[in-house]
Write a structure and sequence with these properties.
single chain, alpha/beta, about 15% strand, about 450 residues
């Protein structure tokens, strides 16, 4: 097959959020397949070839428009002023996109979430208009949709509702839609008559294991973690749908029962003694619009005397240096953790889950809908937090799950952590399952299918 010129676009690239990580995997695989791949994003990026400043969703002007279009109208004089601003931004983005598309003549473009998540209406309008006008084959990888998850879409005016209905998840002959779970595949088919391709998140199981090495050997010392401390890792971004408050409750319970295990050997041969601490390590960053959630979590940890370390400013997708400070990769955080929390009530799939599987760490999991439908049936052994929860009683409050779930999960975790045989059995079994269903071979087949489809569209044009 001849080499193709390919563009992958998203609001951000090169970060540690799930979408950025999936883009990185696809870029590497497409390049391995012999293609030329370029990245498009807003300014909060690492490695983008094309940058459009107005694509940043948390830039004040864009954030203001988003909040007033899909949450609450309060910052413009009237509907017309907001509409004028929307179209001004749209015109600027469309002009820049047109220049990029026409100069480069891409064979196919892969767009992540920008056609399905209504957090930047003018950007989506511009993209869809150009895709339709220029007849570019577009593969829309829809990780999340505007009707689900953390960011709810409540149009503030009829014209906003009309724009969302017209431009989001567009049914066009030169757009192939993809979902990362079967729940949304079913919804698109039943409600929109769109037959999407399902492609679950994947991971490179052929790479070398993540280990302690010359670069990361100072990790514990750098963050004040002692040799015999027990480290509980939360690797996701810090946003409300990750319900990290459940993880805080878990760490709180682990601290309560720790005395029963003092003096005993952990799975790795280290002795957990009275001087050992249980450290809660949070590697992900908070979105600008969700800083309140991170601060609330910090206060919750403080109240419960939990040794929580928020280290997002020292963690990136890849190792490096920023402002003279050493930056560790996201993978380094797994090397120095003992167990991983993944307590989300909603995920499109679950990047950090499969990362923990590859890292051979036991995982606490709240059974969110996609986990129950698509992941659990594959055969993993997890420490479950159940699938029932109470929504917050007040705005910017915390969700709750039954106390017995926390008690049982904490006890099960300690029994795993203090048994080398059990720890190894669970993590090795999960690794085998993950490799079977989510290796790069799966991704390669999917990408080839999309490229063949793009060829058929280009031939018909």
């Amino acid at each position: 097959m001849e080499s193709k010129k390919i563009l992958i676009g998203h609001f951000r690239v090169g970060k540690t959020d799930g979408v950025s990580l999936e883009i990185s995997k696809r870029k590497k695989m497409l390049e391995k397949m012999g293609h030329e791949v370029y990245l498009l994003s807003g300014p909060r990026q690492v490695g983008a070839d094309f940058v459009i400043d107005e694509l940043e969703v948390d830039e004040p002007r864009i954030a203001k428009l988003r909040e007033n279009t899909i949450t609450k109208f309060e910052d413009y004089e009237d509907e017309e002023e907001m509409k004028k601003e929307l179209y001004t931004i749209h015109d600027s983005i469309k002009k820049q996109l047109r220049e990029i598309f026409e100069k480069n003549n891409f064979d196919v473009i892969y767009i992540h979430n920008m056609l399905s998540l209504a957090i930047h209406i003018p950007a989506t309008m511009a993209l869809v208009q150009l895709i339709k006008e220029l007849k570019i084959p577009c593969v829309a990888i829809n990780h999340d949709f505007y009707w689900e998850g953390d960011i709810r879409t409540n149009p503030t005016f009829p014209f906003v509702k009309e724009l969302i209905e017209k431009y989001f998840v567009p049914k066009l002959p030169n757009v192939m839609h993809g979902t990362i779970n079967t729940l949304n595949h079913k919804k698109l088919l039943e409600e929109r008559k769109i037959k999407a391709v399902v492609n679950y998140d994947v991971f490179d199981f052929s790479q070398d294991p993540w280990v302690k090495d010359g670069y990361n050997s100072d990790f514990r010392e750098e963050f004040g973690i002692k040799k015999n401390d027990l480290v509980v890792l939360q690797a996701t971004r810090i946003v409300p749908n990750k319900t990290i408050e459940f993880a805080v409750e878990l760490v709180k319970e682990l601290k309560k029962i720790r005395k029963e295990y003092e003096g005993k050997k952990l799975y790795n041969g280290k002795v957990f003694d009275k001087n050992s601490d249980i450290v809660f390590l949070l590697a992900g960053y908070a979105e600008d619009s969700r800083i309140w959630y991170r601060e609330n979590l910090k206060e919750l940890c403080r109240k419960n005397n939990i040794n929580a370390k928020f280290i997002a400013d020292r963690v990136a997708h890849e190792r490096g240096e920023v402002n003279g400070k050493k930056i560790y990769s996201l993978w380094d955080t797994y090397v120095f953790s003992d167990i991983v929390t993944f307590p989300s009530i909603w995920e499109g799939w679950g990047n950090q889950y499969i990362e923990a599987v590859f890292a051979k760490k036991p995982v606490f999991v709240f059974k969110y809908p996609v986990f129950v439908k698509d992941i659990q049936p594959e055969g993993y052994k997890v420490i479950t937090l159940g699938e029932e929860y109470q929504k917050p009683e007040q705005e910017q409050g915390f969700c709750k799950i039954p106390d017995y779930r926390i008690l049982n999960a904490a006890r099960e975790a300690m029994n795993i952590l203090f048994s080398a045989d059990v720890y190894e059995h669970i993590t090795e079994m999960n690794y085998i399952v993950g490799e079977k269903f989510h290796s790069y071979d799966v991704l390669k087949d999917y990408l080839q299918e999309t490229l063949d489809w793009a060829d058929s569209i280009n031939e018909s044009n």
